[in-house]
Write a structure and sequence with these properties.
It comes from Marinobacter vulgaris. The protein has about 500 residues and is an alpha/beta fold. The chain has 22 helices and 9 strands. Strands 1, 2, 3, 4, 7, 8 and 9 form a 7-stranded mixed sheet that branches. Strands 5-6 form a two-stranded antiparallel sheet.
Length: about 500
């Protein structure tokens, strides 16, 4: 028994030192074998899954495919997805083994993908390619798609680069990405680059401009009522992202960027800026506003593209309003993302320093971790209640806006369906408002990758059908375009 514990500790240490996903996966397989969880993956029986019904649906899909019955296959698929999606999305299925969940889930998803591809690529009696394309688009709209949300976090937010790079390398980076504060900078860097540019961004991080923070002199801090030089931050944003509108960014990258900003007036609602709701707003001004932490940076007036003044023209957007850090009221704009982009699965990369102590044990297993989670939840609830009571007592006065902001930060949701979180390391907090060195950059990126690798099996499985929809629709669009060009 002691030998097994020593070997487990050795392998867990090796996991934290892995330099690539393949290396991490090889070590994780050894851990699963040592802990006996590979056998759990192989056993189909599980109280979390309706094994018999899943087997029946797999057999029915295979039967329809072998007969070439595309209509029958469509009916089986609709029933299967409706019946089993809730089961296979259960996070408990991914809390046992390091390398993934039950092989039965993989087998089911394999057959769903084969069946969707079969319907896409084979004739359906009485249905043209254009009609089939509409059917797939309608089905995708009903099913939904995944989105990646990058939290704030000041310098800790650099770790989002590691998270997104790990997803990119596995072909799992969603096309819909949201960010607030530092997460907005990383989201902006990704969603303003096309695929070749993004590949260079991830493969050559040494080109990233790192000097975002510049403290003001004490007398200027006193006069201006904020601590850092906003012009330096804007220079950092321009160097890494440039100046482009949300519409221009979407057209260039093929991705949908979303940036959270919070109002300075309590009667205004937080906004989610993107190519649908605010296409002409300039991304750099939105990011600047989303980084405007009260007391650190001043509020920002958003800017929009002014086409009457030429390609680089700009003008104030909602000039009577000023905006601050998106993390204050909407670090993770879950409901707004769901409504605007039909999001059915949220992947959250969380690096907010004030949030990490409360969620640092969220993924840990065992009685000790459960006790820590309970203690953190109780403390979080007490903080929120105290702020609410204090806010209600100060119905007016200079402290009221600050209390409103503190209460909003304490009561909002900071987790999604699938969560990747920055490790809680108190010694790193001294770096939270400092420009990272090149060594720090490598460290933060590696932390992001290592935090993402254990979530990849769950992310891969729970976004697989959405990715298959996208692939099928792309093929059907190509087929329809070819038919339109074909001579009559």
């Amino acid at each position: 028994m002691n030998d097994i514990k020593k070997q487990r500790r050795k392998l867990e240490k090796q996991l934290t030192e892995a330099s690539s996903y393949q290396q991490w996966l090889d070590i994780a397989k050894q851990l699963d074998e040592l802990e006996g969880t590979l056998s759990w993956r192989e056993e189909s029986g599980c109280e979390l899954l309706h094994e018999k019904l899943i087997r029946e649906h797999i057999d029915a899909m295979v039967h329809c495919r072998n007969k070439g019955d595309t209509r029958g296959l469509t009916r089986v698929l609709q029933e299967s997805l409706y019946r089993h999606l809730g089961e296979i999305a259960n996070p408990d299925l991914y809390a046992v083994a390091w390398t993934g969940t039950k092989y039965l889930v993989t087998e089911f998803l394999d057959e769903v993908e084969r069946s969707m591809d079969f319907i896409c690529d084979h004739k359906m009696p009485g249905v043209t390619d254009q009609q089939k394309l509409r059917l797939f688009r309608d089905a995708e709209r009903v099913y939904g798609r995944p989105a990646l949300m990058l939290s704030g976090g000041a310098a800790f937010g650099v770790y989002h680069i590691g998270v997104t790079r790990a997803l990119w390398q596995q072909g799992l980076l969603p096309d819909v990405i949201a960010g607030s504060s530092m997460g907005a900078i990383v989201a902006g860097a990704i969603c303003t680059r096309n695929n070749p540019e993004l590949e260079r961004f991830f493969n050559e991080p040494g080109e990233i401009h790192l000097d975002a923070f510049r403290w003001l002199e004490p007398d200027r801090i006193w006069r201006k009522r904020h601590a850092m030089d906003q012009s330096q931050l804007l220079h950092h944003i321009h160097t890494n992202i440039g100046s482009t509108s949300f519409r221009e960014a979407a057209e260039h990258s093929g991705r949908t960027l979303n940036i959270s900003v919070s109002p300075t007036r309590t009667r205004q609602k937080p906004r989610l800026l993107n190519s649908l709701a605010s296409p002409e707003v300039l991304v750099d001004s939105a990011i600047l506003a989303s980084c405007a932490v009260p007391g650190i940076y001043p509020p920002v007036t958003l800017q929009a593209r002014d086409n009457d003044r030429g390609k680089n023209g700009k003008k104030p957007y909602m000039p009577t309003e000023r905006w601050i850090d998106g993390s204050v009221h909407g670090d993770l704009p879950l409901m707004r993302m769901a409504r605007l982009h039909n999001v059915n699965r949220t992947i959250v990369s969380q690096a907010n320093p004030h949030v990490l102590p409360f969620i640092s044990h969220h993924h840990d297993r065992g009685a000790g971790a459960s006790a820590k989670q309970a203690a953190a939840s109780i403390l979080h609830a007490q903080v929120a209640t105290a702020l609410e009571l204090t806010r209600d007592r100060w119905s007016s006065g200079i402290l009221r806006p600050l209390l409103e902001q503190a209460h909003a930060m304490a009561t909002q949701t900071y987790l999604g369906d699938i969560n990747v979180q920055f490790p809680f390391r108190p010694l790193l907090y001294r770096k939270v408002l400092a420009n990272p060195s090149r060594k720090d950059l490598e460290m933060f990126i590696r932390l992001g990758e290592q935090a993402t690798w254990p979530r990849l099996p769950m992310i891969r499985d729970q976004t697989r059908i959405s990715r298959t929809f996208s692939n099928c629709i792309a093929r059907l669009e190509k087929a329809c375009a070819a038919n339109d060009k074909a001579p009559e």
